[in-house]
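2024-03-11 09:14:02 INFO worker-7 job=invfold-0412 stage=load source=structure_tokens
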């Protein structure tokens, strides 16, 4: 099981797996929608019009975040990665420098 993040951070399409950024192979780019417009896909890359590295597995949960500044987006996706890592017992998969590697995120309420 893995935590997959696909989104735009500072206008750049970004893919993260288990809290770490991953890059597509040379000559490809990550796409959420096939550039030819024939398929909607999540978690693959395209070289021209050829789909490669397609995700083969089950999705257990989707969380959608709205537009925000690049710094807020980073804080948001790290919070969600931490939440999912502890919910699904995957904290050991997070990189050592992840802010929620050793402790689950906590909600703070102001009264």
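2024-03-11 09:14:09 INFO worker-7 stage=emit residues=111
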């Amino acid at each position: 099981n893995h935590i997959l993040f696909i989104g735009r951070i500072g206008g750049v399409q970004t893919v993260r797996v288990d809290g770490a950024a991953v890059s597509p192979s040379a000559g490809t780019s990550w796409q959420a929608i096939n550039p030819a417009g024939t398929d909607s896909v999540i978690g693959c890359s395209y070289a021209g019009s050829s789909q490669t590295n397609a995700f083969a597995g089950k999705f257990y949960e989707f969380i959608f975040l709205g537009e925000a500044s690049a710094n807020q987006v980073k804080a948001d996706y790290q919070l969600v990665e931490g939440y999912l890592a502890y919910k699904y017992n995957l904290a050991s998969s997070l990189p050592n420098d992840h802010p929620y590697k050793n402790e689950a995120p906590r909600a703070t309420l102001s009264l």
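2024-03-11 09:14:09 INFO worker-7 stage=report msg="The beta strands are 4-9, 12-17, 20-22, 29-33, 40-47, 50-52."
2024-03-11 09:14:10 INFO worker-7 job finished
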